[in-house]
Predict the 3D structure of the following.
Amino acid sequence: MSRKLGIKYYVEPDAAALARRATQYLVEMAGEAVAGNGRARIAISGGNTPKAAMRLLADPNEPWRARMPWDNLDLYWVDERAVPPDDAESNYRMVRESLLDHVPLAPEQIHRIEAELPPEVAADRYESELRNSFRLEGAEMPRFDLVALGMGDDGHTASLFPFTEGIHETNRLVVANHVPQKDTWRITLTLPVINRASSVFFSIAGADKAEMVKEVFTGPRDAERLPSQLIWPVSGILTVILDKAAAAFLPATDAEGCGVLERER
């Protein structure tokens, strides 16, 4: 893994423009993956920003639906709450209602986390699903074409929360992570899997995230408290898409709304 990380960030004027940029990025990366490998394997996260992007992607009046290579797409989840798939808190339910019910994806292209099962069982089942669908052997790790992440105002990403055991897992593909601060369990991809993806990007919106964005991307390393700092793709490149409010304390961007940061381990 690269000892240097180049962070390329794009700042959009508001959350709606951010969602449009994120949707465009998803479609472009999927197209590149299909052109190169014949298939696009994408892992998505929950939250309001991804929800807006999913709705845009499903909208027949927007350009992206027609451009998405649906026939050659496999959709996975970065993480899930330990709830049934019809629960209001379910990341799967959010994606189903905003996207899956409206687009031509076959059941075998949808790889959900069976979070209605006990957390450890759900993690084992999802790890088996990854091994089977990626045709992995031995200790081999999957290589997603794209992993889409969000970031909480506490610095967590995926379901890797501050000071939880999951941030230290290096051998498993998927882990059941107990989150004491929320008194709950989450099922999540592990850091080695996320960081091995061909492309990893954050989408972050809101003034309530601005201080944390600055701390994570420009502050001193404090990864136990700020797990988002552990997102360090093997490519050495991380893409971040923000609205103006979330980017308030980052260095000014160029005329096209793009900025670049560099970090050392």
